[in-house]
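Hi,

I'm pasting everything inline rather than attaching a file, because the server keeps stripping attachments. The sequence lines come first, and each chain or strand is labelled.
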Amino acid sequence: MNKMMILGSFIVSILLINSGFVCRSQAESLDKQKDQLDRVVNVMRQELRAKRQCVPTVPVNIGESFNSFVNFMRMLKSYDGIDMMLEFAVKNGKNSLEEHLIDSGFRNVKALPVILRINKSSFPADPAFFLNDIYFLENQTDFKVDAIIAEDGSWMIKGEIYGI
Amino acid sequence: MSYLLFNNDVYLSDGNRMNKVKKEAGSFRQLSEAHLCVVDADILIASASENALDKKDSILAKKFSDSYQGEYILQDERIDNNIFQVIGIKTDKVREVYSLLSHDKIVTFVPYAVAARKLLSQQRFPANKVLVLLDDLGSEKLITVFKGLKFSRTRTIVHDKPEQILPEIKRSVINFEKKLAEQKDKNIEGLIIVTNNKILGTEFKEIEKDLSVEIVDSVCFGLEGLRAGGFVLKYILPEEIIKRRRRQESRQRMQNLIISVSLLVPGTLFFFYNRVALGAARNAFKQEEGRQWELEEELNKLDPFIYRNMLERQKKINYALYFLNTVNSLPVSYEVHSFSFERREDGRFDLEEYLYSQQDGLFDPIVPIGPLKRARINDFLAHNRAGKYLRIEL
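And the predicted assembly:
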């Protein structure tokens, strides 16, 4: 009976020590995860601090942004005679804007990746003239240029239209 | 150290002198350690199997109770193969002794005959002879008959005259020999009377000339035997045995409890320490998760209102200006074959230009002025035509 009690205590003690080690390993794992989370939270704080410096503006629907961009394209064509063709950056055989929307990097804001191609026949004599148009287009709409490539007389402007 | 003999009276010896004391608790109060013997004991020689030790005691007790009525405390000693001498002292007698002297004071508690036998064993008498011990205590005389380890019940007589004592001795011897005969012990070669009374011893010889009498110089055989010590037997009250057993059990239980607790404590402490640490880690993690969630919510609400402002900040670059500045900084002999503005991951642009010379492969040196100060210029060959590659990080 007494030996059983000592043996029982020994076994219980071993089980408790084992459980202690399990708890310790879980605590260590949680500590590591918390450290990672700490870093994420710090980055988010910095992001928030930076974003609070921005002037708030009324968000625009992605459809409206797209229409606005197309209207400016037409306007530039009518002014300068440059014939621009707009196409989706990713060709998935679907025409709906919704099917082409991607994550913009801003929360709750979508991006529509597009490519602008310039017809060779309407290519400007002075590239600066057209570059100025792109600058204007970018400034007047929610379009952001990612790349302008002029090669062998063909122009291609890659970019994204933003909206909610 | 004190030596006591309990009979009708109590005899106390300090090792030198012997006194008769009253049977009162006060008489023994000053004693610290006592070795005592009790005269009043009943003896039974009985057989029991030595191999079955657990049954031996019950067999001997049963045989003793068949011979003697009343409540006894028994002790036994091995006499021969499977033969035991059971010595019983009445429980009341033992209780009376313990009422006068506490348990912790009594070191030795044996029957008188056992104590006296110890002294006789030192005198080296022949083992096959019957010894009659006549112990003269003054007012009373004790007669005990011995043969080897066996002994008779001790009788107390108050006679003083040898012609009265001698028949008592003979009666004791006859009774003892009867008992030996019952045990089939017939190896008896005469008897010796051993006494501490020189006068009586001499008178016995005068009465019976062929009687062997030995005079031993001793105040009391029992008390002297107690002094020799080394007794295995000790009479203890059953309740004291139970008390001691309980005390030992309780000590053992306590010991086991301490061992068990000692085994459990480190495990329990280790577990709880780590359990608390885990709880703290969980709380800290949840708090951090809460903070992240709050920030996420805040950013989710904020982003739709600031993305246009951020876009404006990111895209403020006048491509035409940069392009013209670069081209105007180059020697006039260069023509731009192709160019590109490409946004890097940090949001800024790289301007790349591929230049050819209008002078049949002769390149004017490019002076690092204006935006060309930051330009990286390399040579290239494409379609069998050499040119310059220029890259500026805007």
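The CA atoms of residues 159 and 346 of chain B lie 132 Å apart.

If the labels don't parse on your end, tell me and I'll reformat.
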